[in-house]
């Protein structure tokens, strides 16, 4: 089974499709913490893309803590399923949460300023 797929008809840049695919594979449980990913070269060959594109994705995922790259050994999953969720999923969930919170505040007669003030007072 292939790790990820690239859709040539998708207008999303290839590097973003690769990143989204790796994050989704972790978030769905197909990849687990400690699993080794294919080498940059191997994934580039499998996906028929430039190796620099895959290297960029691996580098970005390493910087964000999703992968850990060990020089001379390879790249390994270092994020949990929840931590690896694609950023767009996290943003959508946060937006939905904020809308629910603001709707509830409005129903209870609180303004946005009231909510923000209360949140600032109760920082963890």
Q: What would your notes on this structure say?
A:
With 124 residues, this protein is mainly α. The chain has 2 domains: 14-77, Winged helix-like DNA-binding domain superfamily/Winged helix DNA-binding domain (Arc Repressor Mutant, subunit A, Orthogonal Bundle); 87-121, no CATH class. It is built from 5 helices and 2 strands; from the N terminus they run H-H-H-E-E-H-H. A hairpin with a 3-residue loop joins strand 1 and strand 2. Helix 2 (40-47) packs across helix 3. The radius of gyration is 19 Å and the shape is elongated.
Tag the structure with descriptive keywords.
single chain; 6% strand; 124 residues; mainly alpha
The CATH topology of the largest domain is Arc Repressor Mutant, subunit A
Q: Give the structural class.
A: mainly alpha
| Global mean pLDDT | 88
Outline: elongated
Q: How is the biggest beta sheet arranged?
A: 2 strands, antiparallel
* Strand element count: 2
In spatial order, strands of the major sheet run 1-2
Cα-based radius of gyration, to the nearest Å: 19 Å
> Strand fraction band?
5-15%
The number of helices is 5
Give the full name of the CATH homologous superfamily of the largest domain: Winged helix-like DNA-binding domain superfamily/Winged helix DNA-binding domain
- Helix percent reads 40-55%
Give helix and strand order, one letter per element, not per position.
HHHEEHH
